[in-house]
Amino acid sequence: MAYSSSSMRRPSGKSSRVPSYSEYEQSITAPPLGSSCCSSLQKEESRTDTKAMAPYDYAGEEFLSIHLPIYEFDRIMLAVKLVVAFVGWLVVIPIMLATSPASSAAEGKKKEKCSSSTSNTTVSQKKNGTTTRTKTIKIVETTKKKSKTEPNGKSKKTSIAPEHSSKKANKEESEEPIVKEVSEMANMLCILGFMVTFLYMIIVASPDNRYTTRGVFEAPLFTREECDFLVDMAETVAQRNYEAASEARDNTTIKDRDLMMTEPAGWQKKRHKLYSTTDLNVITDPFSKTDRQWIKEKLNARLAPTIERLYGVPQGSIRANDIFVIRYDGDRQASLKPHTDDGDVTFSALLSDGFTGGGTNYYDRRNQYYHTGNTRYQPQPDEVFAHVLPQIGQMTLFRSPILHEGVQVKKGRRYLLIGFLSVDNVDPWSEDNESTGLSWFASWFSLNWASVRFKTGYSSAVYTNSKLKANQDDWMAVEEERDWMSESTYIRGLFIQFHSHLTMLADLLSTHFFQQIVAANQTKPYLENMDQAYARRRPNKLPSWFSGQQIELSIDGSFHSEWSTRTRNSEKFDREEI
Ligand SMILES: O=C(O)CCC(=O)C(=O)O
Ligand SMILES: [Fe+2]
């Protein structure tokens, strides 16, 4: 079975409206499954330039149980629809709505004179003794002097031309302009109509929103054996932490040493300030270089292409804010309250089974907005739109602003590998903030993305402000360091308003759904397929899973801060070269 055979690309019975795919397939020659290149770690030399690759050549496509958008094609269609909406609302409909002045022919002539001598801005007219503001658009109809003129002064044969061409028309002696006018009210309605259409298309009809805002997706990430391996890896790291904490005398040499010594020993308990989990971060906790390499290769081969295919973002635009293993125990930390994550996309892979309870609840927050004034509104159980209890090795992928909670584990242990990911429009590691190739439709025109960026803008403004205040005696005097964002509380206020309103819009307008994109019983062949494809053709730009965990980008794409984890561990970072 060749993985890229065209008949396998789409599940049978699904519409195939994608001309671009046939081109993609022609450019791919795939060795059959089971050929020798199975280890992604050993086959670096077999990787070839990916420039010839199709943008959405996704190895696991044959296992998909849903029809994913063809982003390039759909975005072009969206752009075409936006242009049509623009022309329709702002040109065609105003022309259709334009009427001749309802006044007498003589008055009409007077008006013509007036209009031809003024630009197409608003003018005032005296009507019944009152002054009314009129005419933002004028449409000039020209007629031959000698042509038959109807009693109402309208020409039988008319040609419609915008007002700016009236000069030309006037030059021709034989022509006499008749001005049609669009009332201010009709104009406003057209502009409003365009704005509503524009927002509808961007919010609801864009592939980047339709499939991503409030959808929760499930797909395989690890085999059972790999999950066991990861759990062992995490417990070994915890053991290392515990030993180091035992040797240390107090909290000064090891942060939160006392907590580290409490059960489960060696696990962090206060790493996340607001919604603390019992966890181990792959960077700041002592995972070995081999451990990290192993995780990185799996994420490169399986997670990155899935995110790219699902959300329509280039792999090089993905950067992890935080990747960690989390542990719930029925008799210790057993749950996590409803919250949203710090990033654009979250992945969460289940690494264990044999526990009771657990799973993740995803909330539809729409009701929350109807409880106006109740800022402490608690999400209600009936607002859960998905309770996801996957099989071991399966991951869920969702946009981080979706409200979710870790459901209480009643008995046993539940381990997860979790990542909060950012999708960047500039490459933070390039010298000159190079573009990552992220489309506008997947970024500023995507409600979730834009909403998260505005939050980043807010925190970067607050950060800059507080840093300057802390570091400078007279911070107001440090002209060159102050930036426009840190200057104004209004700007910061605006950022936070944009953030919460865009999140609210996405909550209100998006379809909430859960979708298993690859069936759990396909885990083995699916993962093999993904690994082989990765071994054959590694993309030019890969996500930044590790180094990216320490930085934040400000809204304009420049670096704005380092996480304390980086600051505390800079030596280790340099040494490990991750
Ligand atoms: O336990 C879960 O499934 C959710 C965990 C989570 O949301 C988090 O760690 O941010
Ligand atoms: Fe979370």
TrEMBL record:
Keyword Transmembrane helix on entry: yes
UniProt keywords, alphabetically: Dioxygenase, Iron, Membrane, Metal-binding, Oxidoreductase, Transmembrane, Transmembrane helix
Residue intervals of the Fe2OG dioxygenase domain: 319-423
Domain of life: Eukaryota
InterPro entries, A to Z: Oxoglu/Fe-dep_dioxygenase_dom, Pro_4_hyd_alph
Biased composition (Basic and acidic residues): 141-153, 164-176
Transmembrane segment boundaries: 78-97, 185-205
Required cofactor names: L-ascorbate
SMART domains linked: P4Hc (SM00702)
Oxidoreductase keyword on record: yes
A GO MF term: iron ion binding
Region feature Disordered, mapped onto this chain: 1-50, 106-176
Biased composition (Low complexity): 1-17, 126-140
Protein name stated in the entry: Fe2OG dioxygenase domain-containing protein
